[in-house]
Amino acid sequence: MDIEILSRIQFAFTVGFHFLFPPLTIGLGLNLVIMSGLWLKTRNPIYHNMGRFWTKVFGLIFAIGVATGIVMEFQFGTNWATYSRFVGDVFGSPLAIEGIYAFFLESGFLAILLFGWNKVGPKLHFFSTCMVALGAHFSAIWILVANSFMQTPAGYHLAKKVKVTADGTQHPLSANLAEGTYSVKEIPLPEDYILQQSDLDSIRAVIDNFWEMVFSPSSMDRLIHTILACWLAGTFLVISISAYYLLKKRHVPFAKASMKIALIVAAVSTALQFWSADETARGVAENQPTKLAAIEGLADSTAEAPLGVVGWVSWDKDDEGNIVGINETSIKIPALLSILVSGDFLNPIEASKVVVKGLNDLPSDEFLQARYPDASPTEIEKIRPEYWPNVPVVFQTYHIMIACGVALFAIAWLGLLLWKTGRLWTVDKKFTRWFLIVCIFSVFLPQIASQAGWFTAEMGRQPWIVYEILKTSEALSQAVRAGQVLFSLIMFTLIYILLFMVFAYTLNSKIKHGPSDDLSGGQLPEKWRSITLLEKNNENKD
Amino acid sequence: MEFDLQTFWFILVGILFTGYAMLDGFDLGVGALHLFTKTDDERRIMLNSIGPVWDGNEVWLVTGGGALFAAFPEVYATVFSGFYDAFMLLLFALIFRAVAIEFRSKQPGKLWRRGWDCGFAFGSLLSSLLIGVAMGNVVWGIPLDENHEFTGNILTLLHPYALLLGLTTVALFMMHGNIYLILKTEGELQAKLRRWVKITIPIFMILFLTVGLITPFVCPHIETAYSQRPIILTLLFTLALLSAFNIPREVYKGREFLAFLSSCGTMVALMTLFGASVYPYMVFSTPTLANSLDIYNGSSTEKTLHFMMIVALIGVPIVLTYTASVYYIFRGKVEITEESY
């Protein structure tokens, strides 16, 4: 295998594995804030027991998140050095901010959360919980900002480094001039400049406006979409474990109270996710039309474009094995894609007339002609598929994500309905049992959705690493050989399997051990008990 | 030395990596010492002395990497791709170590715990060694082409000087961890740790003196630096030496906290010495010095450096405040509780 594919597999594998954990901490963080806040407000020991238990689960997940996160911080440099050089001026900043503002916040206050029960008072402990949750969310913000620059680059320009001699003449960076006779200057390039591989030793992406980069056309849509997905990941972990306890009739008061909080968060988040998903997809239609056509498997540009629900896409190849198009079969809802893309839901008839571009017109002729000025129209047609992502794969990952999202919505709202009609706790009834079993396995759905969504976003961006600027194949490390990557990939696979076993085993033993059932406040730290008593006495006096 | 943006960032990246060395240094050191004590209770106390803080300490490495990427992307790209195998090994060691910490106390079996103890210890040792070897190569110089791409291989990196610096780092972290443990323990275990100091400090001192004395003579670039700024470098070297000599004195007088501060002081002095010896270079190219990366040809644009300077000037003091607060909250001896490892 060549180094490009090995490096991509390694990055996908390590980031995919890492991405199992931060969404859980972000979602659990939100739930912990609610639980600890409720304890502070009501002083009901059950909320304290909840905080105690879910904090332990949080700590375990965070430790694995850190261990796998160091890999991510290093890997841009180790495997994608050319990319790092090219975008470092723009892309490094959000990563550094993430470190300074998010990780320290999260890890510093987590120590108090986990080990500080007997060392600090309840208010400082609650404050620490808020800081940990905030830190987790901050890290999502900055990593999404960085990633969105790769999707919809903004707030930068390309600049070429040249050597300028005393008389003002410019020489290429490679020119062999005597030391001290020149200075290196950066010359801005026109906006429509097309980057060539040979430029990469002297051309860099340079920041224009930091906030324009932060608020790039896709960043806020993608951030909201991802944060909601993270809330779902953490919340469905709570739902799953609570459902398990309910079924086993263990820690029932604890499980009920946890389930109630989580169901509310899940119901709200799944509903918001539909709105966010719609916004995000419309952004993709506008900013990355090739990606939209690929995930929907749309070959020809058309009005009244249908929306596929499930289906199958394969490559259409000519006799020599070159890709010339796609074959797509799916169950479709007529005209819905056009309506969704227009966003004008009140006038569906008008909206359905919106033309959605298909892969056979994407990227546009002008885009390709600019890159291949000597190519004839038939040659352009042949070149076009090289600029498509892996359509058969992204079509599936995208639809898997949607299916998981719909299922999560159904589970959350059905759960809410059962709770409100009093049927969620009657564990001996068949329907309730069946529903709780679904709840136990529901923890996998947000994870599958997140992974599938991430694959859609990243594979849908191909062949670009920075959309329509730099190709993935040009971004690799020059100093690294395929054998080295193969070795590290094998090692990562082995060690991550071990790590996952640790995680599953430890989580399982924490679940088996379970929360405290002491509802008289016996689990409260000693110092807190006297504070609580004192406050109660004061209240009685009033 | 002109105090410009590049210099600011050179110092800030230095502070972050010094913070990493000081903090993760003691928990890597605790790991390296782990196998020298035999009873399970003692091992648990050692493990739990770093329990609340080890993952937070690794955050310094992550942030140091992020700051290097933002401020000096060319250096980040050259070093991380050039030291590919070494950094991958470092990552495996760090992850394996984390696994061992989380896993060890989950089962009472003797073989089980012994296995993970070994994982914890060797993961810590290998991490310390690789960090030292990487630093050794930065001082020594590595072969770079005109595009600052590394042209050697892993064997290029494993020369005697780098290995010596690797061993010195191991000794430094073991001493540092030893003193941290004295601070965190009491009774019999503490008495044992006080005896160990009589070994860990001299070993470090011998290696440190060896490195300190041969570096100006065997590393051509450092030789130049010593001829350019002899006073400041000699001063820093002396400071590190004095600070290190103060450690056994404080231990002897029973002032553990001051001993730990001295150990931290030694590390700060050493890192400052390191920075002052290479400044303004960040990666020396050997043999072609002209291909080297310094703080100017390796940095981001002034715009980014300026913006990020404001970001850092707001953020870093906040980080230092609450990190210090967390350490303050967890001061005192280790107690094994329900939450412990």
The SSE string of chain B, one letter per element, is: HHHHHHHHHHHHEEH
The backbone outline of chain B, from C-alpha atoms, is globular
Radius of gyration of chain A equals: 27 Å
Total DSSP E strands of chain A:
8
Q: Which pair of chains has the greatest number of interface residues, and how are they split between the two chains? A: A-B, 75 and 66 residues
Strand order of the largest sheet of chain B: 1-2
Describe the main β-sheet of chain A briefly: 4 strands, antiparallel
Uncertain runs of chain B: none
The portion of residues assigned to helices of chain B is over 70%
Number of domains of chain A: 4
Low confidence ranges of chain A: none
Strand content bin of chain B: under 5%
The best one-word shape of chain A is globular
Q: By helix and strand content of chain B, what is the structural category?
A: mainly alpha
Q: How many individual helices of chain A?
A: 18
What number is the mean pLDDT of chain A?
Answer: 87
Q: Give the class of chain A from helix and strand content and strand pairing.
A: alpha+beta
Question: How confident overall, as mean pLDDT of chain B?
Answer: 87
Number of contiguous helices of chain B: 13
What is the rounded distance between the termini of chain B?
A: 48 Å
* Global Rg of chain B: 20 Å
